[in-house]
Amino acid sequence: MTKSMREATLQTIGLGSVLEIFQRGKLPAEASEMVDRVFGDAEQRGSLVISGAQGIVGSGKAMQLGSRLYRFGVPVVGIDFPGVPDGISKHYPGLVRAFGRDGANEIMGSIIQLHYDGAHLPAELSHFRPRFLLEAIPEILSIKKAHYEIFRGSFPDIEIRSVTSGFPSSELGVGIAHPAFPHEINKVWEIVEPEPSAVTQLLWSVGLMPIPVSDHWSFVLDVLFCGLTLAGLRYHDASNMPFWKIDKLVRKLVGPNPFRAHDAIGAKGANFLTWSCLHHLAEQYGEVFRPTALLEERKETGENWYPPNHFRPLVDWKLDDAGEEEFRTWILGPVFQMASLLVHEKRSHLSNLNAIGELCAQFRRGVLAMIREEGADSAIAIVEAYHQRDPQAAGAAWFPDAFGAVDEVDWQQLYVNAEHDGQVGVITLSRESYNSDVNHELNRALDWLRTEGIERLILTGDFHLSTQMVGADTSEFFPALENAEVGALIANEWSKTARRLHTDFSTSVGFINGKRCLGGMLELMMHCHYVVATEGADLGMPEVTLPVVPGMEGCHWPFRKAGTEDWPKLIVLLLVGRSIKAGDGVGWLIDAAASMDEALRTVWSIATDGDHGMPRRLLEEGALAGVPKEARDLPAASTPEAEAARQAILDCIDQACGTTLAEALGTQAEHSAGFMISPACRKGAIGAMYKKTMAV
Amino acid sequence: MHEENLMLPKARIPFGTWGSSYFPAWQTSALAEVNIGQFAGEAMNRIMGIRGVSNREIEYLVIGSTVPWHWKFWNAPLVASCMGHRVPGYHVEQACATGLQAVLLGGAEIQSGAHEVVGVLTFDRTSDSPVGVFPERRAHQRTVPIADVWDNFGFDPATGKAMIAAAGKSARKYKLDRREVDELAFYRHQQYFEAKESGFLDRVLVPLDILNVSGRPLGRIDDDLGVRPLSRDAMRAMAELDTCVTSGTQTHASDGMATLLVTTKDRVPDFSPRPEIDIQFVAKTEVRTDPSLMPEAPALAVQKLLSTSGLSMADMAVVKNHNPFAVNDAIFSQLLDYD
Asked: Are A316 and B56 in contact (CB < 8 Å)?
């Protein structure tokens, strides 16, 4: 029997638990099987039809889905009115960049473009056996409904999903697959359907992220992003602060810059969509969503929010402490209130709700993680302070009780889950980059498994919200650029957590199943007794390129597990920062690399003490002798800062390897923190991002 | 004063809805680098924000400046767009006392019933003034370049004299004594520094941070650079440029902006933190003087105003004279018997 801290998000799309994936030794849905289920078998293969295919959404999705389905012989038929601007062809250069010219040509060759008059489907359409319609036509309910009738009239069994920007499924009469911008690359789709369908599981099986949400007006992403925009508009009304400055402060506080995003997407369309979303939400939920007069105006004019280039801002707006507090209230107040509505309505699994803001709206941390850190009482106080400034917003759609469960496990484990079957535990990470939230949650998950008496552990991504492991969340390092003690604290705490993978379990296996595992995430994984990867995964330590010195024991831990003959490879990995393929790291960086199914079986075999035939690479706990003090024949460092980082990393390797395991954690943390306050680090990517994001 | 005696009985200046930048001297600050029209619009927005006035409330904008600026052609609506709220408006320019005239015209917009809330914004930048190339039939090139500030300061085409010559001529007409003018200018300096020391100027002047094109800090405008304490001895030691005119007895060429709001009596409580303070438009006039005698004109105008309004100098709580030259104040004192 499987027991878990909370429900896995994978279960919300009907694909079972992560533990079951390892138990079965295969993924719960294979793309080829799902294609057969949705489009028919190879002999009778049907097509995907995208209506409104030349629009921003339709054309983007034609690229995203076309590039994934052409290998299975599924044609994408794009239909639109004659004379509309060509939205599909303009994606061709992007396809070439991603897939090469031959690949791009092959994908474009699978996309058929047809025209229709809106009332009659083209006769040729039936030749392509339409099985699935993705509707991306304008947001007019009656037109959408008539559109579905036309298709059902000709193709009674066709599956239909609308990409609608706000109508509930109950109004449309079809399921919803609402994608996030930018449509050609963003993997997230908010799904509305009574039960997880084959279409949804197909999306998952081809590497996308379907996220089920409840059937309400608008979507989680839109509530958060449009809500944040509205918060900025309200603050503008209260203060006159220009939008460019509001954007900078919102980015510092939350992460996104909503007004720049509108201009970048195209203010004419984006202003209207934001207004439309808020207008419908206001009709449904009240004044907290009511568009301001300025938004009403600009949805008509399509005017940009930023000044034109020849009027780059001259007069800065600086806030004192009281001003910053005021700003915080105006921005977080409505966003927290809107989040209370999302939680109250149970719009989705809390991890899903939280992740959508990060994955689609550039939230540095998900809104629920922000509320959790704030604490329920403080979050409620912020909303109430906002209501003092905007009393109309207090009238409806405010559910402070929704924050009452903030101490319960669903709120506490937004990014990390744990499951076990009584023998083997699986810890899943739902976040692609490691931050303090993940660190705390991982510790709680480890505690829980230990309390449950689990001795064998698998650490992996969650097979849903996290499709890769990119390393540490570098925004966590911003305070460390000013204060070495903060940097040392981060490195110490995170390393201690990582060491638990080595010390707290009799067997631990790290499984790398995404596209890549880099930096801090790779350091974390390396603390497991075994590391298994899918063969195509990229592994690397890109810290030197940022530049930083690795903080989670990357400068000594892998040396302690590798043979002396492999130490030069580790030096190159650390000093050049270039990734290697998983297969090339077997034996000195990881323990095995294989196809997905084989890798899953290997992991399970290790975890269950099966006959996997792999010796455990032992960890040398004493001081290491003979670790190279220099690296030869390296390509030249790209910048003086990278050169400085190389030297700092070499020093760290020398010092951390030259001491005992017990001492090395502190040594590595000290070196990492020390470099973080150096001019070289501040001049690098993190320093630049810090300056851009926080020093405003 | 009874409303029937006011020149613009419907118009009010809401107490506290005003502000100004500091005025650093020519070429001494980041303002030397900017389009002053854009700066003025953005600074007005900032100041109104600090005063709690939403720029969305402003229906019309009267701007005033004398030195041409980039894209001046597009006038008040352009400056308003830099303020963050594009509204109609116009530009007024009269070299001296443009600010006063702009406020009066703002009041006239209210009085006419055309608008309920009018912004008034004046600004100028003497640094790096533009050079215009004008047709000139006397020149063999048929054109002549004129540096707007210095060539005009130095030559009034109507009289053929420089501005400074008008001050000297007026001083001679009124038989002013250099020591008296020096003393008066010294006293004005003392008043300025006392006001600064007391914090009075902080109620009006707003420090403003200027960004370069990359969005990085270019400078902070937080002082009237160029105005420095002077001793009596230093004042007396200065070279006399014309009669009673030294560099210490004339104002400094500088860059900056100032703004205020004009509205109806009914709307004052919507904007003012002290609505009980009723700031009215009582009267205005101008007078004509002989050529190159501008410094006596303000005093003569006040004499005329007092005679038409029935007021006396005893009714005045605060007097501010137009005084680019200390000579102006000395003449005012003499003609109005006002110390």
From this structure: no
